[in-house]
Amino acid sequence: MDWWEPLLSTLRLITVTIVGSLAIGVPAAWAASTLARCGRSGQIVAKGFVMAAIAAIAIPMILHAAAWEATAGKFGWLPLTQTATQSWGGFAGLVACGWIHSVFGAAIVAIATWHGTSRVPVSILENASIDTTSLRCWWTIQLPLAWPWVLAATILNASLAATEMTVVNLYSYRTIADQFYLLYAVNPDLVSIATTTALPLGFAVALVTVLLGRMRTRQTDYRGEHGRWPSTPNLFDRPSRGVQIIAAVILTMCVVVMFVLPVAGLVAKVGHDVIVDGEQRVAYWSMSRSLHELAAAPTTFASEYQWTAILGICTGIFATLIAWPLAAVGRQRPRFESVVDALTILLFCIPGPLIGMLVVQTFQFPIPGFRFLYETTILPTVLAMSVRALTIAYWILRSGYHGIADSVWLSARLDLSLGRRVWQVDRPLMARSVVIAMLAAGIIASGDVPVTLPVAPPGVSTVGTRLFGLLHSGARYQEAALALWYLGFIGLGITLVRTLTRFRSDRIQ
After folding, report:
1. 286-509 shares the fold of 1-284
2. For residues 79 and 189, what is the distance between their CA atoms, to the nearest angstrom?
């Protein structure tokens, strides 16, 4: 089997993804940081953008594809794109996949850049404020100092582009992960496994190096401003009116591209259709049809919603139960924590189809009970979905444990046994982090189609896998209605996570 063409296709997709995500995400982060220093209204706008970016990250990739397909795809509601996919030929696949990955990656870059620039030590900003403006300081001082976070986000986007196969499969753009899914998912060999994992694991090693290196040389945050808006202290004058307008325009365009336009595309597509009359196409939109399809979707796709909820809840709980002790032990043993950090990142970068098939092959061993579990339970599916969910849960819990002041942690270790410490100290302080980890892991796992497709048992169909099938079959308003309800459920989950985070108890210093 010739792997060179899929490799080149993967590298092209990675290049487009990196360029597109940086071009959108970095200016968006600057705009959010700038508006955050423009009074209460600017802070509200900046917070809204951060929430929109987090929502864009939480939305599964297949849902991004469904939204953009409903907006500008072959059957999209924009009239000028009705024949775009057909007329562009093979180049359309790279454009479509690259755009979807770029929009998704832009949200990751924006959050990472905003976080990195807000953690620049105040002493550096105080010196810079003497002879430079806030605009110049952000681009020439804060952004270069935040390069580890930007680089980590870039590597993560490259890894996702190299491992995700549902979007590229939709547009018949053959990457390495998609090639493995199509030709080797049933009977993988060592060559196919090594070829499929080589590039993602290379990115994983780079990501581990950057993140762990950053954590070892972590700069001290300014305690008086930690966790408060604006993200940088008021060391500079208020940005000029022109800079504020530019920042507002950039931020508005980014929100529209990353969130508003795809959602509007789904809303429009529910009631949109095209009638071919001879050589003419007549497009129309009906409110009554939109309401009818939205009302019918919960019944039509009841099984998909139920299985998605069941698998998401089970996976979130299972992944959190595994991640909690790892984070707890890592809090008191730095070397163990570094090992777990690296392993979780490596697991996250393994292609989904490979994870699914490894789980399937594991349950084929002649061990009593394995055949029964594989044929009659969802345990194999939950295990496969938990691989990436474990990473999400672990890093949330890890952050929660590091939010506990050292004085409290050391005192608890001296005065209490392990069991009493977990019950009296860890449980109340980590309660919200545990719930957030369960919700986040469940949301991410529920839309992980590359992992679910090879391992889902017969009769089990999630929203993601059903969307995958509907998009391939050319279904239009059906997939839009299915996606809108799923998007609403994800929105509720994100709102709950945000509420728990917002009202989180003050950390004991």
Report:
1. yes
2. 46
| 499 CB-contact burial (10 Å; exposed 0-12 / middle 13-18 / buried 19+) | exposed
User: Scanning the structure block, which residue is given the tokens 């595309």?
Assistant: 265
Q: Which of 161, 202, 196 is nearest to 181 (CA)?
A: 196
Distance CA 178, CA 173 (A): 8
Q: How far apart are CA 362 and CA 2, in angstroms?
A: 28
Cβ atoms of 165 and 178 closer than 8 Å: yes
CATH of domain 1-284: 1.10.3720.10
In this structure, are residues 455 and 381 in contact, taking their beta carbons and an 8 Å threshold? yes
* Spatial separation of the C-alpha atoms in residues 33 and 75, rounded to whole Å: 38
For 126, residues 6+ apart whose C-beta sits below 8 A from its C-beta are 235
Among candidate residues 436, 416, 438, the one with its CA nearest the CA of residue 426: 416
Task: Report yes or no: 96 and 12 within 8 Å, Cβ to Cβ.
Answer: no
Amino acid at 40: R
Domain ranges of the chain: 1-284, 286-509
DSSP annotation of 274 reads E
> Tell me, what DSSP letter sits at residue 350?
S
Say if CB 151 and CB 210 are below 8 A apart. Answer: yes
Assign a CATH topology to domain 286-509: MetI-like fold (1.10.3720)
Averaged confidence pLDDT in the chain: 82
> Is the pLDDT reported for residue 290 higher than 80?
yes
pLDDT of 283 reads 66
Average of pLDDT values for 5-33? 93
pLDDT in tens, 426-479: 888 888 889 999 999 999 898 888 888 888 888 888 998 888 888 877 656 778
Neighbours of 381 (CB within 10 A): 26
pLDDT band at 193 (very low <50, low <70, confident <90, very high): confident
Alpha-carbon distance of 435 to 427, in angstroms, equals: 11
Q: Tell me the pLDDT band of 30, cut-offs 50, 70 and 90.
A: very high
Task: Give per-residue burial for 296-324: e unless 16+ CB within 10 Å, then b.
Answer: ebeeebeebbebbebbbbbbbbbbbeebb
Q: What is the pLDDT, as a whole number, of residue 82?
A: 43
Asked whether the CA dihedral 110, 112, 118, 120 is positive or negative, the reply is: negative
Tell me how far apart the alpha carbons of residues 304 and 80 are, in angstroms, rounded to a whole number: 33
pTM of the predicted structure, to 2 decimals = 0.86
**Alpha carbon distances (Å) from 257 to 22, 60, 133, 244:** 14, 16, 30, 20
Q: DSSP string of 414-447?
A: HHS-HHHHIIIIIHHHHHHHHHHHHHHHHHHHHT
User: Which of the 8 DSSP states describes residue 410?
Assistant: H
DSSP character for 504?
A: P
Which two tokens mark 240? 């000029």
How many other C-beta atoms are found inside a 10 Å radius of the C-beta of residue 243? Answer: 17
Single out the residue of 234, 255, 246 nearest to residue 36, CA to CA: 234
